[in-house]
Amino acid sequence: MAFPNLTLIDAIRKAAEQLRQSTQYQWGHMGACNCGHLAQQLTSFSKATIHQFAMQGRGDWHEQANDYCPTSGLPMDLLISQMLQKGLTTVDLQHIERLTDKSVLVKLDPLKRQSLQYNQKEDVILYFETWANVLEEQLFENVPSIEDILELNFTPSKTTLVPELLSI
To answer: How far apart (Å, rounded) are the C-alpha atoms in residues 64 and 106?
Structure first.
C-alpha cells in the first residue's frame, strides 16, 4: 500500500474532483483513465503527454507498472518514478487501474463493493475518495497525541512521525 502522506492524499482527492467536474474520462486512454487522472495530479504532465509516453511502451497501466524499470530511460518509466516518489508503489498503480485494493474495498458498502466497475467514472471517484480517507487514517494513526508530546517520555522517531509533520 502507498506511503500515506499529505501530498498523495491531496492528489487523490484532486483527481476525484477532476473526474467529477470533467467529461474527460476514458478507461482505454492512458492519460484519461484511473491512473492517468492521478498521474496528472502527481506530475506536471497533461493527459496527452501521459498517453504519448504510454504508447512508447506495451500494455495498460497494470502491465507498464509490472514492467517498470527505474533505469530504462523510457518516458513512461520516468513518469512512474515520479509517482513512486510521491508515495505510490507499482502495486498501487495496478490496483488503481482495476480498483482492487482490499484495504480500500473493505471500507465500501458491501453492495457497492460487489457492483464496483473499474471503468465507470462514478465508481472511480468513490474509490479515490475512499482511498484518500484510508490513507489519511493511516497517516494520523502515527501522529502522537498532545498528551504524549507533553510527557517527557515521548521521543520522536521515524516510526512515530512522518517527515512532513516533523517540520510543524
So the answer is: 26
CA distances from 71 to 25, 47, 57, 80, 147 (A): 31, 23, 14, 11, 46
- Coil, strand, or helix at residue 81? helix
Residue 13 lies inside a defined structural domain of this protein: yes
DSSP annotation string for 98-141? HT--HHHHTTS-HHHHHH--TT-HHHHHHHHHHHHHHHHHHHHH
- Domain assignment of residue 84, yes or no: yes
Does any domain span residue 87?
A: yes
Can you count the helices (H) and strands (E) in the chain? 11, 0
Q: What pTM was estimated for this model as a whole?
A: 0.84
Question: Residue 59 and residue 62: Cα distance in Å, rounded?
Answer: 8
| In a domain? residue 20 | yes
Q: 160 with 142: CB under 8 angstroms?
A: yes
User: What is the domain extent for residue 87?
Assistant: 6-142
The total of structural domains in the chain comes to 1
Radius of gyration of the chain (CA): 17
pLDDT, one tens digit per residue, over 21-64 is 988 899 999 999 999 999 999 998 999 999 999 999 889 999 99
